[in-house]
Design a protein that fits this description.
- Helix content is 77%, strand content 0%.
- With 182 residues, it is mainly α.
- The protein is flat.
- The termini are far apart.
Length: 182
């Protein structure tokens, strides 16, 4: 969340002073956020403090950051095209999250979730073209290439749409064969 604020300050500061110090700080905060997010579950498991609430809180924080960063960047360098691209991307995020978590809930319900698959996460999250690593890279590009926000947002959104379609096809092929649906 601190990184999101840095992105907003970065864009405003850069416009008025031409200084890029906030860009670097915003990028460092983004990378630190992702590194800490990557190890928090491991630390919780190693210290025997893993919980379903922790998994839930983790995903809430992740999606808060995923929503605020792009908004902060567009506020700092506003343009009609950037706001339209932002609206498209946030809408795609919404559809992706709904589909991902509903699919996760179904997989847990039919006993094909994280525990069955031997995953260490709270719930299973079916893989797709765009996952955590790709998101981290794109968000890093958003921060360090602010003059290309709109095209980057459209590219990323298009890849997320492909991920949604990929999961939809997977669900169509695999969920019709469950014992509950025979």
């Amino acid at each position: 969340l601190v990184g999101s604020e840095m992105c907003i300050r970065d864009r405003v500061s850069t416009q008025s002073t031409g200084a890029f110090r906030w860009t670097r700080l915003g990028f460092v905060c983004w990378v630190l956020n992702r590194l800490l997010d990557g190890i928090d579950g491991t630390v919780a498991r190693k210290t025997n403090q893993q919980s379903d609430f922790g998994g839930y809180l983790d995903i809430i924080c992740d999606f808060t950051v995923y929503g605020l960063y792009p908004i902060g960047l567009v506020i700092g360098t506003p343009s009609t095209n950037a706001f339209i691209a932002l609206g498209f991307m946030e809408s795609v995020f919404f559809v992706n999250a709904a589909g991902l978590f509903y699919l996760s809930a179904i997989l847990e319900k039919i006993n094909a979730g994280a525990a069955k698959r031997g995953e260490l996460t709270t719930v299973t999250m079916p893989a797709g073209l765009i996952g955590g690593t790709e998101t981290m890279v794109f968000f890093g590009l958003f921060i360090i290439l602010p003059n290309y926000l709109a095209p980057l947002y459209y590219l990323f959104s298009s890849l997320v749409v492909l991920t949604i379609l990929q999961r939809l096809l997977w669900a169509y092929q695999n969920l019709q064969k469950t014992p509950e649906n025979k």
